[in-house]
Each structure stands twice: as C-alpha cells, then as structure tokens.
Amino acid sequence: MDFHDLKAFAAHHDNYEIRVIGHAGSRFYQVELEDIEGQRHMLTRQGKPVLFRALDDVYVELKRAGIHRAYLVQQVPHDEVIGRATHYQDPLTSRMPLVF
Question: What's this model's pTM, rounded to 2 decimal places?
C-alpha cells in the first residue's frame, strides 16, 4: 500500500488497525495496516517496503496521513525459532498502544 493509498483509506474508513512493527536486533520500523477483512497491507514506496529509522519518523508520516493512533509490535525471533505461534493480537503481551 502506497502512502497516498494509506491516506485515502484512512479518510474513508474508520475500522482498521495500524501496526508499527519493530524487529528484535534491528533499528528499523515498518508500518502495516490491517483492514476489517483481516487483510494486511505493508506501507510501500515504489513497490518496496518503507523502512523507518526512528519512531519519530513514523509519527510524522502517519500524522500526514491523518492517523493519530497505532500499535507498536515488537517481533521477537525466539517465538519463530522454537516453532511457537506468535500472538501479536494479544494486547497485554506483544502490543503497545501509541497515540501521537
């Protein structure tokens, strides 16, 4: 999903979730939108995933799109290595709400 598509989607829909995904051991963040149908869309630019170096950069881009809340999701490779299913939707263990 391109930035302009994200902005248009946010303007016309109100039932979606924005996730700011950080990977353990990495300093980069990605932005993902999950719509009401459960489909996930990564924020892209010219067909390539957009990587942000700081949360402040994410906040600026999302504010420009008219979005003021998201969830910070930290992906830990431990779950993947041992074959355990990840539970990113469990709000008490793996997601932190962001308001900006």
Answer: 0.80
